[in-house]
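for the recovery benchmark. tokens below, seq after
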């Protein structure tokens, strides 16, 4: 694991909506620091730094060092709240990490060698069941990602968690079954062949054949009706 990134933070004495709005006007995000058998502490962190980290895609599985006005604490983000309209971070919860702390995190999965999969070459589709895998591991040993090699996989083949080499002391939180990570599937819906569509239009069923005959009969009756009416007028 790479060295923990440092984030600047400030103590936040005011709480509530008024205090949060004041913090946001200063270009910061109201946050809470908790855990490690200590009292929760209200703090503020720099908006730009957090927004940049959130967009990396693995913010909540990264260990940081919070520098709170000179006091440094190892933490990991546990929850991020976003503005419901503009979708930017408005609040962050941080968990203090003690020495040898174990954490539960979601680790992203990378799929390699798609060109070496015969199933994908023949038109199969990679169906990703899990983009991330939840694991339990030491805070200092969080993997950046897991690699899945697709070499040799055919349509119908599946990749299970047992096929992924996990680092030492890293265990999936789902331990009661060998869950599926991805499968190679065929096309779920084939488009009909043009020739078949044309054949259906040219060769109708029994019911279709009766339609033009009925239409012709109706047209013939329509032609005869004026003649019958003329004959009735002459008789009158």
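predicted aa per position
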């Amino acid at each position: 694991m790479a060295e923990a990134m440092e984030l600047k933070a400030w103590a936040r004495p005011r709480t509530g909506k008024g205090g949060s709005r004041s913090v946001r006007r200063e270009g910061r995000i109201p946050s809470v620091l908790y855990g490690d058998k200590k009292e929760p502490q209200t703090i503020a962190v720099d908006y730009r730094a957090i927004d940049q980290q959130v967009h990396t895609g693995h913010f909540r599985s990264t260990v940081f060092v919070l520098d709170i006005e000179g006091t440094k604490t190892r933490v990991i983000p546990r929850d991020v709240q976003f503005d419901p309209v503009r979708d930017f971070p408005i609040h962050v919860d941080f968990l203090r990490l003690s020495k040898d702390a174990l954490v539960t995190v979601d680790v992203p999965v990378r799929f390699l060698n798609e060109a070496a999969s015969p199933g994908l070459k023949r038109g199969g589709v990679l169906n990703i069941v899990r983009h991330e895998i939840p694991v339990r591991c030491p805070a200092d040993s969080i993997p950046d990602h897991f690699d899945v090699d697709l070499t040799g996989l055919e349509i119908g083949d599946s990749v299970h968690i047992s096929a992924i080499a996990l680092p030492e002391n890293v265990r999936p939180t789902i331990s009661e079954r060998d869950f599926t990570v991805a499968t190679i599937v065929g096309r779920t819906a084939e488009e009909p062949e043009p020739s078949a569509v044309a054949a259906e239009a040219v060769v109708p069923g029994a019911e279709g054949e009766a339609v033009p005959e009925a239409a012709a009969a109706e047209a013939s009756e329509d032609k005869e009706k004026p003649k019958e009416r003329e004959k009735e007028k002459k008789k009158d």
